[in-house]
Every structure is written in C-alpha cells, then in structure tokens.
Design brief:
single chain, mainly alpha, about 0% strand
C-alpha cells in the first residue's frame, strides 16, 4: 500500500537526509507526506466496500470488513493528529493490509462454499 511506504519513508527521513537521498518526504516535507499518506489510506478504506456494493460479496463480507475499516479510520486519526511516531503508524498500516488480505481470502472461500 502506498500510504505505508510513504510513512516508512518518513520514518527513514533523518537517514535519507544524511545520505542525500531524494525521497518524497525529503523533497516535500514530513507534513505534506503524512497528508498524502492520509489521502491514499482514506481512498483504500472506501474501496474496501466495493465488493459489497457491487454485489460480489454478501453481508458476511460487510460484517468482516467493517471492523478493519474502523481500524483504518483509527490509523487515519493518528496520521491526522501526528500523535504517534511514524514507525507505529506504518506497522499499523501493515497490520491492516494483512487483515484485508485475510478478509479477501476468507470471503473467496465463503463465496465458493455458498
């Protein structure tokens, strides 16, 4: 996910500046990079509902995906408030990514059974 990579780049910013690396946070700044990560993660949260809205998956999917979306909104809140370090934010994004992959796998299995 792009947002995780952006936050990971923020985490590595001091080392990148010392090395002279031209990463996005080094070019546009930490705050703007957090804003960009926020936008990508917000879009991803809404896209999680596409399989339900299009009828690909049923209410079971909706029940499984909603807690993950709530977790993603918590991550969005931490990005917005900058009240956690970037390392913790990027680890939480990674957890959300793994949960989404698990949800898609479970949904595919459940869809085949039904």
């Amino acid at each position: 996910m792009v947002s995780r990579e952006l936050v990971k780049d923020i985490e590595d910013l001091k080392g990148d500046i010392k090395k002279g690396a031209k990463t996005l946070p080094a070019i546009i700044g930490e705050s703007k990079t957090f804003n960009l990560a926020f936008i990508f993660l917000l879009i991803a949260a809404f896209l999680l509902y596409i399989p339900f809205v299009t009828g690909l998956y049923s209410y079971i999917y909706l029940g499984i995906v909603t807690p993950v979306v709530i977790f993603v909104f918590y991550i969005l809140y931490t990005i917005l408030k900058h009240n956690e370090n970037s390392g913790k934010i990027q680890r939480n994004i990674k957890k959300a990514m793994y949960l989404v992959l698990l949800i898609f796998l479970l949904s595919a299995i459940i869809f085949r059974i039904m």
